[in-house]
């Protein structure tokens, strides 16, 4: 059984390698869940250095690890300072709305200390999720607002989540305008009205493999149709790995079940197609925006 598991797990890396292609310009993956349990479970089978090497092969040169809780943010910090993983890693420090119910009086102080690390480039992933409501809505609102205040205090960008909660989300952001720091709506999947509201608040927009999903019920085509409405200086791309493996990888048996940053060029290709711009231009522009917002630097 162990041998079978290893073969199956190892084949995921092989599938990624078979599906990756090199971006024409260095990319920044602004949302990578590198401390997700799917990586921990397979630590011996999926060596993290291999994952990063595949990312470099695809010309994904900047990686921002998403923090979704204090513990997750601490783990992300540790990975960023691992001497054997190179210097392309940065992290965010925050509490996802799903985990808001676990916050206590020490949470903000812990995030503040994490934010003091030069490798920490944003506060988040924070925000609201009224779709799944894993934390009560009032609790989500309280801890989202506290993290907005913290970002303004420590002068770090905001990396934010909004699902079925645009009214309250915009209300909270609006109370703290001007923010004085950049703020990104990560993994945008909303409608045109929501997009216009976010842009009116000067928010940046992160696009994931959701845009590669052809299933009608998922709304990938609708999302693609909205992309021309996003100013190029407000647009960034992200893998959200290990989630949202681009479904543009066909046939399905060639598609890894676990996403990696090495597959980010598939998102780039979909965004370029939707916006009618060359891939090289979209790659250069989205990386330039990420460099400006998060202070990361990628090289040719």
Distance between the termini: 44 Å
- The arrangement of helices and strands along the chain is HEHHEHEHEHEHEHEHEHH
Question: Low-confidence parts lasting 5 or more residues at pLDDT below 50?
Answer: 1-7
Query: CATH superfamily membership, which one?
Result: Metal-dependent hydrolases
Helix run count: 11
CATH top level label: Alpha Beta
Instruction: Output the radius of gyration.
Output: 18 Å
Structural class: alpha/beta
Helix content: 40-55%
Q: How much β-strand is present in the residues?
A: 5-15%
User: What's the overall average pLDDT, rounded?
Assistant: 92
- Under CATH, the topology can be stated as TIM Barrel
Strand order of the largest sheet: 1-2-3-4-5-6-7-8
Q: What's the story with the biggest beta sheet? A: 8 strands, parallel
The number of distinct β-strands equals 8
> What is the domain total for the residues?
1
Binding site for a divalent metal cation 2: 161, 186
Protein name: TatD related DNase
Binding site for a divalent metal cation 1: 125, 240
Family: Belongs to the metallo-dependent hydrolases superfamily. TatD-type hydrolase family.
């Amino acid at each position: 059984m162990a041998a079978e598991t290893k073969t199956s797990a190892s084949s995921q890396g092989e599938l990624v390698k078979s599906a990756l292609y090199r971006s024409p310009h260095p990319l920044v993956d602004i949302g990578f869940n590198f401390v997700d349990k799917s990586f921990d479970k397979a630590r011996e089978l999926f060596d993290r250095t291999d994952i990063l090497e595949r990312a470099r092969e695809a010309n994904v040169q900047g990686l921002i690890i998403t923090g979704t809780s204090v513990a997750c943010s601490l783990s992300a910090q540790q990975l960023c300072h691992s001497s054997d993983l190179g210097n392309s890693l940065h992290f965010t420090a925050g509490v996802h709305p799903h985990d808001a119910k676990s916050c206590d009086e020490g949470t903000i102080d812990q995030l503040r200390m994490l934010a003091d690390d030069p490798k920490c480039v944003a506060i988040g992933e924070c925000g609201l999720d009224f779709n799944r409501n894993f934390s009560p809505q009032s609790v989500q609102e309280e801890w989202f607002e506290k993290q907005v205040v913290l970002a303004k205090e420590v002068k770090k960008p905001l990396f934010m989540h909004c699902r079925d909660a645009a009214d309250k989300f915009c209300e909270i952001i609006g109370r703290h305008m001007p923010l004085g720091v950049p703020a990104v709506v990560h993994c945008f999947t909303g409608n045109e009205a929501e997009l216009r509201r976010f842009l009116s608040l000067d928010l940046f927009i992160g696009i994931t493999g959701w845009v590669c999903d052809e299933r009608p019920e998922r709304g990938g085509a609708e999302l693609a149709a909205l992309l021309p409405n996003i100013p190029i200086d407000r647009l960034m791309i992200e893998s959200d790995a290990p989630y949202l493996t681009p479904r543009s990888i066909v046939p399905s048996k060639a598609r890894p079940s676990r996403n990696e940053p090495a597959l980010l060029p598939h998102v780039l290709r979909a965004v370029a197609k939707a916006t009618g711009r060359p891939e090289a231009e979209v790659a250069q522009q989205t990386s330039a925006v990420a460099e400006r917002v998060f202070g990361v630097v990628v090289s040719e």
